[in-house]
Design goal:
557 residues; five-stranded antiparallel sheet; 26% strand; elongated
Length: 557
């Protein structure tokens, strides 16, 4: 286990997301520790930020200010906000992956606010890092257990809340209590093991759903006819055909892939499979026979095969169709046995009248459980984007307990500022990846390569004098703390406050730094005119815990 770097929160210095990267998928790589140990006491280096503008603007409904100024880029406080490495994260294709295995550029599910609710959107992992720190276990009423750092935030029915905090005094902040309920779909189901029953069930569902096996005769030289068993998988995606060929070979049914008319017509990923053996028909018939008492694993495989052959998630509906009414009833029975609510739909008019369909009820939570417990192979059929985050899952917090020792925890930054971790909406650190735009790492570089804007006050003066400028509060400390240790000599934040006082302009400040006391004269005059509001971020009153969570921030006292 990598020892902590003195005075820093990050352990690694992964490359900027804009640089060409290669990924080592070996088991030893998931710790994200560089091959060469970083220096034990990395120094902070100051750079000049030559930006020609100073005010950043946003219109996000999740951010309570429209204008902000960051006199510094990067932050020496070394703060960390993280989850255990095995926490499953919802990917954009409906699958899950442990947070430790995510990489920059991966597509995952984020959320956006839609009125009083949130909906799923596709977003990208922009940064990924790990740290060693104290951890807490958050237990929910449905049995979900989330291991996270004290400063990690989850979305509750009353907004974003930290894992720990104080109800009063200097350490007061919104934090989880046993009265809170988290927002999400409920714990993700685990992927089923591909045992013999599951494999046979999958092949039965895929082959039956695709139309069953049939004979084909090809003419050989001399006029003889060669008999083949043709598996009608022309309309199946390559992912399903690949899985079928592999598992058929394990059942001693030799196959070969041939060009499909649909593939030749331009459809992506389709293929045909033939079993060119004389006794294949009997072998396949035995393989796909319906068991007298289907085991649960067989049923999950059967549902996965039927979904790959004739199912999809589209427009908020998960549906499996077939021209065989008896086969649809078998699907409904398997769904019922696996605890799903299902509805056999009446046949529609026109061409749809030839098809029977069964629909899985229960919204996004039920559809995710189906995809995870059945584990179909085809990913393009899983359209989960734009879905409302709502469920009847019991997500009330029942316990929060500190775990012994330090744990390796992981965090990511996404395009939406959040992600879905084991069925609950989880916040991420948004500031670290901004260093990628400067060809630096969101890891140690974010804490050691600090950029300052020496012309900040002059640029602000020019902005405020523009004829079209419309005054509204400017926030200092949106991405990084305006009272970095470097501020003692650089005095950039001080100059900005003096300029705002000169113009009589409203300002808000968020900081962890005690250096703000130096500027009480300017802030006091702004406050006398009702133009200033200051918020202090105090994570904990425990000095030793603070040293782990924010190595270079001010002591609690």
């Amino acid at each position: 286990m990598q020892p902590p770097i003195k005075g820093r929160g990050a352990l690694s210095n992964e490359a900027s997301r804009f640089l060409k990267q290669t990924a080592d998928r070996s088991a030893d790589y998931v710790d994200a520790v560089p091959e060469e140990d970083p220096p034990r006491h990395p120094a902070t280096r100051l750079h000049v930020d030559a930006s020609r503008s100073i005010i950043s603007r946003n219109d996000s409904p999740d951010v309570p200010f429209g204008q902000s100024i960051n006199p510094y880029r990067g932050c020496e406080h070394g703060c960390v906000y993280c989850l255990a490495g095995d926490t499953p994260i919802l990917m954009a294709d409906g699958t899950t992956r442990p947070i430790a295995d995510l990489r920059v550029g991966d597509l995952i599910c984020g959320t956006v606010r839609d009125g009083q609710h949130r909906r799923t959107v596709r977003t990208t992992v922009r940064a990924h890092w790990s740290v060693l720190k104290p951890a807490y276990r958050v237990t929910l009423a449905d049995g979900t257990q989330l291991v996270a750092g004290a400063d990690h935030r989850f979305l509750t029915e009353r907004g974003w809340k930290f894992v720990t905090g104080a109800g009063q005094g200097p350490g007061r902040r919104p934090h989880l209590t046993r009265r809170n309920r988290l927002i999400g779909t409920g714990a993700f189901s685990r992927r089923p093991p591909a045992d013999g029953d599951y494999r046979r069930g999958y092949l039965s569902g895929l082959i039956r759903g695709a139309g069953g096996p049939g004979d084909r005769y090809d003419e050989r030289p001399g006029g003889a006819l060669a008999r083949h068993v043709r598996l009608r998988l022309e309309r199946c995606d390559a992912e399903a055909a690949h899985r079928a060929r592999r598992w058929l070979s394990e059942e001693a049914v030799g196959t070969r892939r041939v060009a499909s008319p649909i593939a030749l017509s331009g459809r992506s990923g389709s293929s045909a499979v033939r079993a060119p053996v004389l006794d294949a028909a009997a072998s396949i018939g035995d393989l796909i026979a319906w068991p007298a008492a289907p085991p649960p694993s067989w049923q999950r495989g059967f549902l996965a095969g039927m979904f790959d052959a004739a199912g999809c998630v589209r427009g908020g509906t998960l549906r499996i169709c077939s021209a065989d009414a008896q086969l649809v009833r078998r699907v409904a029975e398997a769904l019922d046995a696996q605890g799903f609510r299902a509805l056999i739909e009446p046949r529609g008019p026109g061409p749809a009248r030839a098809l029977h369909a069964v629909r899985v009820l229960g919204g996004l939570a039920a559809h995710l459980r189906f995809l995870h417990t059945a584990d179909p192979a085809v990913t393009r059929r899983r359209d989960l984007i734009g879905r409302r985050i709502a469920s009847a899952a019991r997500l009330a917090v029942t316990a929060i307990e500190r775990l012994a020792g330090a744990r390796r925890l992981y965090d990511i930054t996404t395009g939406t500022g959040d992600f879905i971790a084991d069925g609950v909406v989880s916040h991420n650190c948004f500031a670290r990846p901004t260093h990628a735009y400067l060809d630096h790492s969101p890891g140690l570089d974010f804490e050691t390569e600090i950029y300052a804007k020496p012309d900040a006050a002059r640029l602000l003066d020019a902005e405020l004098r523009r004829p079209g400028y419309r005054p509204e509060p400017i926030h200092l400390g949106a991405a990084t703390d305006p009272y970095q240790p470097l501020e003692r000599e650089a005095r950039l934040t001080r100059a900005l406050l003096e300029k705002l006082l000169e113009f009589g302009h409203p300002v808000t400040v968020l900081t962890k730094g005690t250096l703000i006391e130096r500027d009480l004269d300017v802030l006091g005059e702004l406050a006398r005119r009702r133009l200033a509001r200051v918020a202090l971020s105090i994570t904990t009153l425990d000095r030793e815990l603070k040293r782990s969570l924010e190595p270079r921030a001010a002591a609690p006292a």
